[in-house]
Amino acid sequence: MERMSFIHLELCKVKRLLIIYSLFIGLIYIGPASLYANQSEGRLGSTAENLKKIMLSQKLIDQGIANLRQYSFDKAAELFNESTAQEYYFDGVNFGYAKSKMVKAYQYDQQYQKALEALDWFFQQRRVGERTIDEKRKFQALIKWESSGDTKAIYGYIQYIQQKYGHRLPPKEADILIFSDIAELYDLIGDYDTGIVWAASFKKTTKDKRDEQEYQNVIKAFEESKQDMPKICGDEGRTCVGRATAYIIQSDQI
Fold first, then answer.
1. Could you tell me which of 131, 71, 93 has the C-alpha nearest to residue 15?
2. What is the pLDDT of residues 78-136, one digit of tens each?
3. pLDDT at 6
4. DSSP 119
5. Does the pLDDT value for residue 221 go beyond 70?
6. What is the mean pLDDT of residues 202-224?
7. Exposed, middle or buried by CB within 10 Å (0-12, 13-18, 19+), for 110?
8. How crowded is residue 185: how many other Cβ atoms within 10 Å of its Cβ?
């Protein structure tokens, strides 16, 4: 159960792979046959064109992820946005995933209003789940914190998440997505002690040895920040994030 959120996160990737596979099969088997049966339909050309759209969109997303991991968040957001251009559209493949990545890039870049605007796409498309609603509340809290410097809104959001998803948090379960979301907030506002306690509770609860090591690495990152070790920067020093957040960005597990 503790990896359920991670599985949901990957569903959009699975959908993309299934559609690419289906198009590939169609290109090999259906396309050539259709040319002989009825060339006016142009099914081979259509299948190849759609497959090309998906692959070009995916290439831009991969470049965006690479920039994200180099802490070049503005460039990453630009690439994620470009991947959703109409010229790459086929059945919405990649679009939701790219939009969610764009929201995250803006968050790391502390462009919270832009993140909120990017998130609005899901509301316009009526693709709104509980986590989308939670994300909106998070960015509203971040905007309040940014304008006032008061962390009350951030702690209020954290409390809201803990109450709402208590059944998915230690000591019952260890939801990976909720962990990273809250850990990044503690890192952002400099509450490293609470971040350590938060990560330690997940380390104690998880039954997955890989995740246990990941939580330990986040604890180490918080401890390094407590020792005034520098933040991790990219884009020639223009953008910086806390050490725990930097580790989460690089991790494939959390």
1. 93
2. 999 999 887 877 666 678 899 999 999 999 999 999 999 999 999 998 888 999 999 99
3. 40
4. H
5. yes
6. 96
7. middle
8. 24
**Encoded tokens for 72:** 């070049």
Q: Give 233's strand partners.
A: 240
Cα distances (Å, whole numbers) of residue 165 to 138, 155, 161, 239: 15, 15, 6, 32
Q: What is the DSSP letter of 252?
A: S
The chain-wide mean pLDDT, for the chain, equals: 85
Count the Cβ atoms, other than its own, within 10 Å of residue 7: 10
CA–CA dist 69, 167 (Å, integer) = 32
CA distance 68 to 70: 5
Q: DSSP characters for 42-111?
A: -HHHHHHHHHHHHHHHHHHHHHHHHHHHTT-HHHHHHHHHHTTSGGG-STTTTHHHHHHHHHHHHHHTT-
Distance CA 20, CA 57 (A): 12
